[in-house]
Amino acid sequence: MRENLAMNAAQPLRQAPDLADRFGAHVVQALIDEVTLAPKPGLVDIRSCGAHHDLDWKLMCASALALQPTFVELARAGIETQPLLALRERIGAIGRVGETRMLDATGGVNTHRGAIWALGLLVTAAARELLDLAPQAVAARAGSIARVQDRHAPARTGNKGEQACLDYSVGGARGQAQAGFPHVVDVALPELVRSRLRGDSETAARLNALLAVMASLDDTCVLARGGPDALAEMQDGARRVLEQGGAAALAGRRELKALDRRLVELHVSPGGAADLLAAALFLDRLQREAAHTSNA
Questions:
Q1: 44-71, pLDDT tens digit by residue?
Q2: Does the bond joining 39 to the residue before it have cis omega, within 30 degrees of 0?
Q3: Angle in degrees, CA 79, 282, 5, rounded to 5
Q4: Residue 30: Cβ-neighbour burial (10 angstroms; 0-12, 13-18, 19+)
Q5: What is the Cα 117 distance to its own chain's centre?
Q6: What is the pTM of this model?
Q7: Which fold has domain 2-150+160-295?
């Protein structure tokens, strides 16, 4: 099952007939890479359900694969639609259909609502300007799109993350996007690069990137379940892992296991940070592919 999912996700990368297909496949691969990464504190991964009772690795992978047509459509919208308002409203409609597609695939479980928003904006922005796929440039374009008001979007969604934004006066996923994804370009990606440069394994580097985001993000998934006290514990615990050398160091791994146990006890899961890690992995993949193409 695991091998088949990985092959299905990677196949379009080799055989995509056009750019939108390839970009959509890149997003799906980033989502599968994120959920497969282990051990992630409080989150679903290939070894554990984390703090969840209704999610597991297989369901998350099935959801990601079901969303591939949505991300392809979003990339195609970025290629075809120039006026910002028209683009924003086109991708908003695509995203809402994508949510329905996700819920159909998961039996009504919210697996990737935040990822549809974040990676949907980024894949649209990437496809909009193919000559500049640097992460900062793609994220800035995504921020410009996110700041446009979709006149057809519901005023309130009733989502827990939205309510947490209102309850605790934080920006949440919308604020992160409108600011140009600072936790992706200024936190996750630099940590990924630093970890690789010092010789950490790719698994450790990705875990460190996740922890760097967790250490400072006002994660509405955590706030919605556990409030400010749980958020503070998560942030402090993530900082301790990094201070002890990160996921590649023995002391860091001990702190990581302790943080995982604590988040499961608190029944909180940093889903916002996980979405931003997937976004970072997508932008990293795009940049590396562009560099490889230019050097070929």
A1: 999 999 999 999 999 999 999 999 999 9
A2: yes
A3: 105
A4: buried
A5: 9
A6: 0.92
A7: Triphosphoribosyl-dephospho-CoA protein (1.10.4200)
